[in-house]
Every structure is written in C-alpha cells, then in structure tokens.
Amino acid sequence: MSYQVFDSLAAIDFAKAKGFFPNEAQVSSHEIGDGNLNLVFQLSTPERSLIVKQALPYARCVGESWPLTLDRARIEAETLQAHAKVAPDLVVKVLDFDLEKYAMVQEDLSHLVLLRKRLIDVEKVDNLAEDLARYLADSLYAYSDFALAAQAKKALVQNFTNPELCQITEDLFFTDPFREHERNDIFPATRPLAEELWQDVMLLDAVAELKARFLSCPQSLLHGDVHSGSVFSGPGELKVIDAEFGFFGPIGFDVGSVIGNLLLAWCRHKTLGNNDYADWLEEESLSFWDLFESRFRTLLAGTQDPGLASEGYQSRFLAQVQRDALGYAGCELIRRTLGLAHVADITSLDDAQRSDAEKKALALGRSLILASQGSCDISLIRRLLKPSPVR
Ligand code: SR1
Ligand code: MG
C-alpha cells in the first residue's frame, strides 16, 4: 500500500506486517517523537519493544506550510547503516526500512537517556569524548577518499545527495542567524547583541567561507546533525540516532557540531555557577578533538591511495579539519541562540540567566568563527573559556 501518515494503530499494523510481532499480539503503541521533523512510535509487548519512525511530508516543528522530502527517511536509514558498518556499537540498529511508507523499524533505546538531558542534569558521562571521537573518526574516515576508491566514492556521493535537508542547514545554520530573518527567534534581551553581530563584516566574511565549504566540500559521509539531542547515552553505552541530514560534506562540520553542543552546555553551567562541571565540559571538548585527531591520523596511515599517503599532506588535511570544526562549532553556538532551532540547555534557564548564557554563546561563537580563518588550533578553546581579566 502507498504512503499514508501513521497513527498508533497503523504503526502496529506496519510492524506486524514486517513480522516484528505475531498478528495476534497485544501491542501498545505511543507516539513519543519530540524532534523537529518526524513521527516516532514506541511499540511494545511484554516480550519486545521497538521504535517505528516515519517521515512526514513536512517539517513537524513548523507544520504543513514547510513541505519536506520523504526521501530523508531513506537517507537516514542508509546513513545509519553505513556508519554502523564501521562503528556498530555506537549507532542505533536499523532493523527494517520501507521505501513506500518512508518508515523504519529501529531498536528501542529507551533504557538510555538523551545526552542533552544528561548534560543539563550535570552528569559526567563516562567515555563521552572517547565514544564520540571513535564514532566520528571511524565513520568519517571509512567514507573519505583516503579509504574509498574514487569511483565508488562518487557513486555514494550521488546516492547521499540530500538537497532539501542540506538547504535547511544552509539556511538555518549559516544564513538566517547572521541577518534579520522571519525564521529567527531572538530573545528580546539578546536582540541588541544580534544587531551588533549583523554589522560585523569580518564575521560575515568568515561565515560565508564556512558556508561555501559546507556547500562544496564532499570529504565524507557526514551524520549532518550530530547535536546532543541526536545521541543517547547510559552506563557503558552511547548510540547515535537521527541521521536524516546525512550527506557528503566537510568532516569538520560533524566534529564542530559535537564541540558546539558541549560548549552550549558550558554556557549554561558557567552561567549557573556550576564551575566544576563547566571545567569538565571544557576538558571533554578538548579531549574529544585530541582523540578524534589521533584516531583519524592512525587510520590515515593505512590509506589505500598512495597518492594521498604523504604525511605532510595528511597533517595539513587534519589542521584544516580542526579549523573548520572550530568555525562550525562557532556557527552552532550562534544559530542555537538567534536562529529557529534553540536548545533546552539555554531556553530552560530563567530570563536573567538565559540572557547571560546567550551573551556567552554569541561571544564564544564569534571568536571561534573568526579564529577559524587563521592558524588556530583547539587550545584556543581553553583560552576563550578563561574568565576575561578585569580591566
Ligand atoms: C526545521 S529543522 C530544525 C533543526 O532541527 C534539526 O535537528 C536540525 O538541527 C535543524 O537545523
Ligand atoms: Mg534530528
């Protein structure tokens, strides 16, 4: 049967037709999606529990006035499957994908907690930097020119061309927040700072450079939206979900999204005076990069392409990824403050705290973006997070 938007019962019928439950089973079904785009049903019997995720023909957070391709469900399933080939323990399992219903069946991760919630709740997450670094290093290396034959990679670039979802990022990440735009959502106390930022020509030049690299730099198959709401975590476990923004883009974009989200949590906790926890977030950001870089460098040594085996080139490549990551982290801080899609790390604060945290996010974001255009490295984060000297 052709595409229809599921309700709870249709989600059960779908899972039964796929053989996940016997026809006679009493299955309970609840729509639990709280993301910006899709429907998510949790189906359970006493014996098993599963997730059915279906793409809607529009962006859920805005409504039918924002039509959106259903093909994103295919991209999501295939990106998760591609990344699971090389990092199976760190990616949610896709058990089935249906190209007519634009729906997939996934393992249920409800024994885990969204990373964003854990970061808000002042939890020091074991192995966070290690797991995220391994997920990104292994998946981003495996789908790069260093690991794939050129023609195979080009075929994948074609398969993962994701113009509508990329357009969302191009607009919401790089364009709207840096000018007046009706999609922006600006906290009144923050507006004067936004207006100041919009006049900053050097900043706008740097953001244009970062956007151009996002548009035209197919280095590897990115997750494309690896913020702390796309990661589940629990004791000894971390799982990445929600890869509908997957496409071939600059490696630093995924790396920077992780760093940007740790720094958004830092802005929250520094504002609240949770200094020990803010220091932990700072250390996690730095070790995340160090672990990513060292694992990626080790993988590079095994490149299949003798033409890309030069150590000098590989070092320059990683230095560029680092600069990109700092710049994209800066854009994430700014777009989550001024743009359409905010984060609970900041919006759940009271008004005075929110204004303070947003001020920090904008200043930090700006410095990171400007620095990404020079010869900066990750230690910049340490310098930027230090309290400014009293003048
Ligand atoms: C209309 S989608 C808004 C945001 O949600 C997604 O998770 C992406 O981060 C996107 O920018
Ligand atoms: Mg998402």
UniProtKB/TrEMBL annotation:
The keyword Calcium does not apply. Keywords: Amino-acid biosynthesis, ATP-binding, Kinase, Methionine biosynthesis, Nucleotide-binding, Transferase. The keyword Nucleotide-binding applies. GO terms for molecular function: ATP binding; S-methyl-5-thioribose kinase activity. GO terms for biological process: methionine biosynthetic process. It comes from the Bacteria. SUPFAM superfamilies: Protein kinase-like (PK-like). It holds the Pfam family APH. Residues 31-267 form the Aminoglycoside phosphotransferase domain. Its EC number is 2.7.1.100. InterPro entries: Aminoglycoside_PTrfase, Kinase-like_dom_sf, Methylthioribose_kinase. Homodimer. Belongs to the methylthioribose kinase family. This is S-methyl-5-thioribose kinase. It comes from Gallaecimonas xiamenensis 3-C-1.
